[in-house]
């Protein structure tokens, strides 16, 4: 199973040349396409043509945001140099977060259009009985509302995943670079930045993955009317949200 990964904001900040920005954005969105395709709800597969189309749209959106903000921020007036520096450090986050969320919707758009399989929530005893008899749990049908919830939560988890890694390290580093320690030891800037990225990465990914359960249960009454009378335990149904 592929896991969401975000490149450090310093990958862009160290060199804001357009060609470098394009390279990192294309690399990041290519990885996102692989992740979203591997971890989607497979009850509604996506065609190769749709995958290619979604890939180019996501890359275009990501590059447009990054290049656009890189061009706009330096031209902002009536703000202090410090504020301009902070905003420039957050450009990669804006590009990655917006394009990452868009990437999820593009790669899993067919799920929203056609719906995903939902299943009745069974008690532990019912699950054991099914396993003992070798009977699979049958789908109650495809729900577009469940698909919309699954894809939306996955897109939000991408933003949550990017936020600590791409917001905290650059902002903390801006403050640390003003200290005498780093002013006297500029060579320590890279190790300090890597340590900040490592520290936030250790906590960011588990929190993002744990924000919403992969196997999600909701009230049958919250979905289409055809499922209202088909809920299992406590009137609930469940579905695979994906990652």
Total helices: the number is 9
For the largest sheet, list the strands in their spatial order: 2-1-4-3
Radius of gyration: 22 Å
Taken as a percent bin, the fraction of beta residues is 5-15%
Number of strands: 4
Order of helices and strands: HHHHHEHEHHHEE
Q: What does the main sheet amount to? A: 4 strands, antiparallel
Distance between the termini: 9 Å
Q: Label the overall shape.
A: elongated
Unreliable residue stretches: 8-15
Work out the helicity level: 55-70%
Mean pLDDT, to the nearest integer, reads 83
Query: Based on helices, strands and strand pairing, what is the structural class?
Result: alpha+beta
Task: Provide an overview of this structure.
The chain is built from nine helices and four strands, in the order αααααβαβαααββ. The chain has 243 residues and is α+β, with helices and mostly antiparallel strands. The protein is elongated and about 70 Å long.
Quick recap of the structure?
The protein has 243 residues and is an alpha+beta fold. It has helices at 10-13, 18-38, 48-72, 81-107, 109-114, 124-133, 144-176, 180-184, 189-210; strands at 116-120, 141-143, 215-219, 236-240. The chain is elongated and about 70 Å long.
